[in-house]
Specification:
By secondary structure, this protein is an alpha+beta fold. Helix content is 26%, strand content 28%. It has two helices and five strands, in the order αβββαββ.
């Protein structure tokens, strides 16, 4: 009888230690997966990563209700030619066609952010016609006749 009791206690202790080690491993796993995903080119849902070129910047600024908005101070909309589509996340509304020009909104304007948003980190260098950039583009469904661009750029890297 004592043998069975001792064996049962040993099995329970072994199971508890095993579960504890599995929990520690699980805590380490998400950071590893996130790092791997970002280095493997993970793109969030409703986004596409492109290499684009600024074709034309619309000179008008938006007149949003918030006068502190960056788009009330500098142009935020440009026509962008998609040079290449690197990848697209799940749910991106409509695939980009390489070589096609799309109207896009730049959330923090096309001007250098250090002049408009001096506290923004990392700052964006600004873009002008002819410059190439890499960015994750957010895609939104729009209603028929909507004048707002259906694509928004929040951050980019000059190429």
């Amino acid at each position: 009888m004592k043998r069975w009791f001792f064996l049962a206690v040993l099995i329970i202790c072994g199971s508890l230690l095993s579960c504890r080690q599995a929990a520690k491993d699980a805590e380490k796993q998400p950071a590893t997966q996130e790092h791997t995903a970002s280095t493997a080119g993970h793109v969030p849902p409703n986004h596409a990563r492109i290499l684009g070129e600024i074709v034309e910047i619309e000179s008008a600024t938006f007149d949003p209700p918030d006068v502190e908005s960056p788009c009330s101070k500098a142009p935020c909309v440009a026509k962008v030619r998609v040079i290449s589509v690197m990848t697209a996340g799940m749910g991106f509304p409509q695939p980009f066609l390489e070589g096609t020009t799309y109207r896009m909104k730049f959330a923090y304007t096309l001007n250098p952010t250090e002049t408009i948003l001096p506290d923004m980190q990392p700052s964006l260098p600004g873009l002008h016609a002819g410059l190439r950039f890499k960015a994750d583009i957010a895609g939104y469904e729009t209603l028929e006749g909507d004048i707002q661009p259906r694509y928004t750029v929040f951050s980019y890297e000059r190429q």
